[in-house]
Amino acid sequence: MRASTAATLLVGLLAPFTLAAPTAETALTPGGFRVAANIHQIPSGGSLAHVGSEVHVFSANGTVVHKVTPAATKVKAAVSPEATGWVAYASWLNTGSSPISSFTTTWKVPAVPAANHGQTVFLFNSIEPNSGDAILQPVLQFGPSAAGGGSFWALATWYLVGDQTFFTTPVRTTAGSTLNGVITLTSSSGSLFNYNSAFSNVAGTTLTVTGAAQLTWATETLEAYAVTSASDYPTGSTVFSGINLKLASGAVPTVAWSHVSDTADGLTTTVNTNGATNAQITIAY
Ligand SMILES: *[C@@H]1O[C@H](CO)[C@@H](O)[C@H](O)[C@H]1NC(C)=O
Fold it and tell me: Residue 25 and residue 35: Cα distance in Å, rounded?
């Protein structure tokens, strides 16, 4: 009895400390909500390099300003059920022996959504390795994210690898602007691949990463969080056009785009022109 009283007392004393164990603060990225301490802004003019198991962040003058060791995890795994995540997209997986050397997409910044409930809308072309553990993506964003943002459109290029996230400083843009999302394989050596991604016509959006895994899964995507009504999306549709894929061999791959819609929420993905030369894919809201 005494022991049990003591045990109860002990539990009573320890419980507040046990419960107080802090849960890590998270912030929104194009890979869902991720631990905020693992989200890094790349200095203006800076770059990224895989060095062994680490990723080094370089400032514009070549100084290493940060070193992190990513823990392997799927970049889409962080998407929880209540966070909508990837709602409508088209994709193609390169299973051939020659790597994708270039992936370009053109689209127009839509009008801002009619409603603002604190939602976040991401529109991008992207490319991932076979493992699903990384993604390189020039992203158009409306609403808040770990990179900043608000009730306006902004552009940033993101690289997520394992549990680590990197982004360039967001640059504001306006409805009607034409965007060119570009992902380029600049060189490779064995299993190490060097990439460059940017909105080619927007200064400050270039992200260079060296020593990455080969990127094989190309997508055109609408991703959204905290949407509570149809008017949280832009009206009409987003037409991803000028979709061009090239291989390191110099060949143009034979591409049939897979597509995913969210018809329950009125979002449809349509492949208007298939292939890897001036393909066109429309996501209607
Ligand atoms: C290089 O950049 C870093 C970070 O911005 C800065 O601290 C450092 O002083 C710079 N070094 C030189 C040699 O300019």
Answer: 6
Tell how far the Cα of 61 is from the centroid of ligand 1, in angstroms.
6
Give the C-alpha separation, 242 to 278, whole Å: 4
For residue 280, give the nearest of 252, 263, 261, 257 by alpha carbon.
257
Q: How far apart are CA 145 and CA 111, in angstroms?
A: 19
Beta-bridge partners for 96:
none
Q: Does ligand 1 come within 6 angstroms of the Cβ of 59? A: yes
Query: Phi/psi zone of residue 275: left (φ > 0), alpha (ψ -120 to 50 degrees), beta?
Result: left
pLDDT at 11: 47
Ligand 1 centroid to residue 64 C-alpha, Å = 9
Which ranges of 20-162 would DSSP assign to H, the alpha helix? none
Tokens describing residue 240: 């991803």
In single-letter form, the type of residue at position 13 comes to L
Domain boundaries, the chain: 3-284
- Residue 260 in contact with residue 269, Cβ under 8 Å? yes
Contacts of 73 (CB under 8 A, 6+ apart): 133, 162, 163
0.70 exceeded by the pTM?
Answer: yes
Neighbours of 72 (CB within 10 A): 11
Ligand 1 close to Cβ of residue 241 (< 6 A): no
- Classify domain 3-284 at the CATH topology level: Jelly Rolls (2.60.120)
If you search the block for the tokens 């693992």, which residue do you land on? Answer: 38
The string of pLDDT tens digits covering residues 173-223 is 999 999 999 999 999 999 999 999 999 999 999 999 999 999 999 999 999
Q: 66 C-alpha vs ligand 1 centroid, how far in Å?
A: 13
